[in-house]
């Protein structure tokens, strides 16, 4: 996703990809807490790309 973006040097860019969770064999959307936790983790750990949940 970063391709084609012009990001100033003083800006930190983090791409957070959202997936889903599997509970009792069923897929479900991520909760607000799971999404927020993933975003916070990406920022605190300075991860340029972070996946929250499953995508396959």
Question: Would you write up a description of this structure?
Answer:
The strands form two sheets. The protein has a two-stranded parallel ribbon. A two-stranded antiparallel ribbon has the order 2-3. It has one helix spanning 32-44, and strands spanning 15-18, 21-23, 26-28, 49-52. The two termini are 19 Å apart. A hairpin with a 2-residue loop joins strand 2 and strand 3. The protein has 56 residues and is an alpha+beta fold.
Distance between the termini: 19 Å
Number of helices: 1
Q: Residue share in helices?
A: 10-25%
DSSP E strands, number? 4
Globular, elongated, flat, extended or rod-shaped: what is the shape? elongated
Radius of gyration: 13 Å
What is the H/E string?
EEEHE
Mean pLDDT, to the nearest integer, reads 94
How does the major sheet shape up?
2 strands, parallel
User: Strands of the biggest beta sheet: in what spatial order?
Assistant: 1-4
Give the low-pLDDT segments. none
Structural class: alpha+beta
Strand content: 25-35%
**Looking at the chains present, what oligomeric state does this protein adopt?**
single chain
């Amino acid at each position: 996703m970063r391709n084609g973006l012009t990001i100033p040097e003083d800006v930190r860019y983090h791409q957070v990809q959202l997936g889903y969770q599997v509970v009792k064999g069923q897929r479900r959307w991520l909760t607000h807490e799971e999404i927020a936790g993933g975003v916070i983790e990406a920022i605190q750990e300075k991860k340029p790309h972070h996946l929250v949940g499953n995508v396959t």
